[in-house]
Amino acid sequence: MKFEIKSKDPQSKARAGVMTTDHGDIETPIFMPVGTMGTVKGVHQKELIEEINADIILGNTYHLYLRPKTEILEKAGGLHKFMNWERPILTDSGGYQVYSLSGRRKIKEEGVNFKSHIDGSYHFFSPENVMEIQRTIGADIIMAFDECTPYPCDYKYAKRSMHMTHRWLNRCMAHLERLPFKYGYSQTFFPIVQGSTYKDLRKQSAEFIANVGAEGNAIGGLSVGEPAEEMYAMTDVVCSILPEDKPRYLMGVGTPINILENIALGVDMFDCVMPTRNARNGMLFTAYGSINIKNKKWEDDFSPIDSMGITYVDTYYSKAYLRHLFAANELLGKQIATVHNLGFYLWLTREARKHILAGDFADWKNKMVRQMDNRL
Questions:
Q1: From CA 193, how far away is CA 227, in angstroms rounded?
Q2: Of residues 92, 140, 268, 314, which has the active-site annotation?
Q3: Do 136 and 191 form a contact (C-beta atoms < 8 A)?
Q4: Is 363 a catalytic residue?
Q5: pLDDT for 27-61, tens place per residue?
Q6: Measuring CA to CA, how many Å separate 241 from each of 17, 48, 98, 203, 232?
Q7: What's the whole-model pTM score?
Q8: Terminal CA-to-CA distance of the chain, rounded, Å?
Q9: Distance of CA 168 to the CA centre of its chain
């Protein structure tokens, strides 16, 4: 993978770049739709390409390992071929999913024992076998196996966990050196900064990760319930240490406002289930604020869903019709809302990029943050 910075904003740490992978270019800053199990819920791959225009999507190691299983993915020739997606894919290592199992897993130095949420069967993840699984899935960007600490988190626990994540990182890298690529294209490895919301731990972890010299770096363990101000403070600390010439990925973030504020701090890549999950619950994001389409006020509003018309659904359907679909619990309503929200998130990061290139990102960002902080 190559990464080239095209422009920097003069009034913030925002930057516009291009990542080059074997499956295509990714213009940054970028939002990556979450396709946990080889599908972005409710959206056809054709819509992801033609309407939402996602440069890259995510898959998840934990879920794909359990279903359809790595043997099936290997027979298919990797996840790209299995789901008929020719653009880049990133896989999360499953650390966050294992963390979220809480009562179903046991973490130790060797790795993590866990029970499947599907059938209760027992499994074991180690830094080594997670690298093997990600080789088999075949994503363009693969993540280190880490422990994601909860919020709030005791300082001693956060420190112990961070050091274990660093030891696991060394094991990931050592094992990757022995694993050839499987499908004729290369994979890029990102380590993950941890340290909870403790500035000294974040600094220590960022320095450790920076010294690894990977082609890109990720910031984990945020957007797990901490106040936004703490998230921004930790991101700021980490971005000031991570190499400037490598892409920075803030995992699991977030709201449209979170994304813009973190772009201003120097982050290049984002993912979050929020646009898809909230869509399925009737929450729409727009440039002027959020809409709860289930509210009675939209019952006889025959105006377009979003007059900006970012995707075809925005002007093809009315608010009243979309509200009716949710009231009747029709699946089409969730699909329409999902296409809209993902289209908006991609529009937002691309618009941010345009303003970074134009040199007026900071002013535009401040205006957008005020606008989007409304309930319509």
A1: 19
A2: 92
A3: no
A4: no
A5: 999 999 999 999 999 999 999 999 999 999 999 99
A6: 19, 34, 28, 7, 15
A7: 0.97
A8: 42
A9: 22
Write down the catalytic residue from 9, 146, 271, 306. Answer: 271
Contacts of 312 (CB under 8 A, 6+ apart): 51, 339
> What is the average pLDDT value for the chain, to the nearest integer?
96
Residue 296 CB contacts under 8 Å (≥ 6 apart), including other chains: none
Contact between 138 and 78 under an 8 Å Cβ cutoff? The reply is: yes
pLDDT given for residue 65 in this prediction: 97
CB 126 within 8 A of CB 146: no
Does the annotation count 300 as an active-site position?
Answer: no
Residues ≥6 apart with Cβ < 8 Å to 319: 291, 293, 298, 301, 302, 303, 304, 305
pLDDT of residue 96: 77
Write down the pLDDT at residue 178.
Answer: 96
Pairwise CA distance, residues 352 & 206, whole Å: 26
| Token duo for residue 176 | 């990757």
